[in-house]
C-alpha cells in the first residue's frame, strides 16, 4: 500500500518535470530560431548587395552617399560616427559607473545604499527618446557656451548623454563583481595595515577586474546599438571625422532613416540597411562573446 502511494505521488511530479523541461526547451529553441532567422535575412540581403557593390569598395571609399544620384558606398563615415559616439559614451559611463559601484559596494551604509541604488537604476528606465531631446535642447546649448565651433547636432552631446544612459549598466554589473570578491581578501589586507581606500584600489578592484571588464563590454555593445539619442542629437550627416564637435551619422541612425523613408523594397539602396546591419551585428556579437567569456571566468573563480 505504501509503495503504491509513493508511486502515485512520484508520477505527477515526473509529469510536471517533463512538462517543465519541454517548455524550457521550446523557449531556448525559440531564441535560437529567432537569432538564426535574423542572421539568415541579414546574410541573404547582404549577399545581394555585395553582388552589386564589391566589398573592397566599402573599405576603400571614404564617402557614404547611397541615396544620391551618383551613389558612393564607403562604410568608414558611418563606422567613424558610431565609434566616436560610443567612445565618448564610454568615457562618461566607465568612470562614473565604476565609482558608483565602488561607493555602493564598499563605502555606502545600508540606508544610503537603499536610497542611491534605486536612483541610479532609475536612469535605465528613462526612454531613449527623452535622452535624445535632453541632449539636443539642454546639453548642446550648454556646451555651445563653453566649446567654440560646436554645431547644433554634434557627437559630443549625444555621446555624453548616452554615457549617462549606460551608467546603470556599468554600475550594476560592476557592483555585482565587487560584491563577489571574497571578504577574506579585504580582511587580510586590513590585517596587514593597509588602509580602506588602498584596499579597494589595490585588492578589490584587481580581483573584480574581469567582471568590470564584462560590464564595460556589455555597455559598449548597447552603445553601438543606440538609435534615438544619436538620431536626434548627433545629426544625419555621414562624415569621416573624429572631431566630436561635428555632426555625424551612426549605423543605427542610417538604418532608421532609410527604413522609414520611401525606398522601394529590393533595390540596392534598400539592401544597404542590411549590409550596415550585418556589420553592426558582427561588432556587437564580438563584444558580447568577449563579455560572456569574462563572466564565465568570474564564475569559475568563485567556485571553491
Assign the CATH class: Mainly Alpha
Oligomer: single chain
Beta-sheet strand percentage? under 5%
Could you say which structural class the secondary elements and strand pairing correspond to?
mainly alpha
Strand tally is: 0
The helix/strand series, from N terminus to C terminus, equals HHHHHHHHHHHH
Over all CA atoms, what is the radius of gyration? 25 Å
CATH architecture verdict: Orthogonal Bundle
Cα-to-Cα separation, first versus last residue:
45 Å
The general outline is: globular
**Uncertain stretches:** none
Secondary structure elements and pairings:
Elements: H1 2-52, H2 55-60, H3 76-107, H4 110-122, H5 128-144, H6 155-179, H7 183-191, H8 196-207, H9 209-224, H10 228-233, H11 251-259, H12 268-302
Helix pairs in contact: 1-12, 3-6, 3-9, 5-6, 6-9, 7-8, 9-12, 11-12
Description:
The mean pLDDT is 84. The longest helix has 51 residues, at 2-52. The two termini are 45 Å apart. The chain is built from 12 helices and no strands. It has one domain: Orthogonal Bundle (MetI-like fold), CATH 1.10.3720. The relative contact order is 0.13. It is mostly helical and 304 residues long.
Give a quick set of tags describing it.
12 helices; globular; about 0% strand; single chain; MetI-like fold
Give a short overview.
The radius of gyration is 25 Å and the shape is globular. It contains 12 helices and no strands.
Amino acid at each position: 500500500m505504501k509503495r503504491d502511494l509513493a508511486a502515485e505521488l512520484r508520477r505527477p511530479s515526473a509529469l510536471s518535470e517533463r512538462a517543465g523541461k519541454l517548455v524550457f526547451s521550446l523557449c531556448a529553441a525559440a531564441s535560437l530560431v529567432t537569432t538564426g532567422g535574423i542572421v539568415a535575412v541579414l546574410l541573404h540581403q547582404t549577399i545581394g548587395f555585395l553582388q552589386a557593390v564589391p566589398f573592397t569598395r566599402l573599405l576603400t571609399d571614404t564617402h557614404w552617399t547611397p541615396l544620391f544620384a551618383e551613389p558612393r558606398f564607403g562604410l568608414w563615415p558611418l563606422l567613424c560616427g558610431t565609434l566616436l559616439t560610443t567612445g565618448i559614451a564610454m568615457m562618461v559611463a566607465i568612470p562614473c559607473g565604476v565609482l558608483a559601484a565602488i561607493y555602493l559596494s564598499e563605502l555606502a551604509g545600508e540606508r544610503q545604499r537603499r536610497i542611491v541604488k534605486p536612483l541610479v537604476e532609475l536612469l535605465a528606465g528613462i526612454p531613449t527618446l527623452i535622452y535624445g531631446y535632453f541632449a539636443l535642447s539642454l546639453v548642446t546649448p550648454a556646451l555651445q557656451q563653453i566649446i567654440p565651433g560646436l554645431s547644433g547636432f554634434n557627437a559630443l552631446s549625444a555621446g555624453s548623454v548616452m554615457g549617462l544612459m549606460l551608467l546603470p549598466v556599468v554600475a550594476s554589473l560592476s557592483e555585482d563583481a565587487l560584491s563577489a570578491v571574497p571578504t577574506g581578501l579585504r580582511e587580510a589586507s586590513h590585517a596587514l595595515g593597509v588602509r580602506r581606500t588602498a584596499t579597494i584600489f589595490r585588492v578589490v578592484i584587481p580581483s573584480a577586474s574581469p567582471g568590470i571588464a564584462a560590464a564595460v563590454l556589455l555597455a559598449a555593445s548597447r552603445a553601438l546599438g543606440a538609435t534615438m539619442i544619436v538620431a536626434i542629437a548627433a545629426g544625419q550627416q555621414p562624415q569621416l571625422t573624429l572631431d566630436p564637435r561635428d555632426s555625424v551619422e551612426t549605423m543605427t541612425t542610417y538604418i532608421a532613416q532609410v527604413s522609414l523613408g520611401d525606398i522601394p523594397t529590393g533595390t540596392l539602396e534598400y539592401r544597404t540597411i542590411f549590409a550596415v546591419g550585418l556589420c553592426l551585428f558582427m561588432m556587437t556579437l564580438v563584444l558580447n562573446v568577449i563579455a560572456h567569456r569574462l563572466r564565465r571566468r568570474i564564475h569559475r573563480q568563485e567556485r571553491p
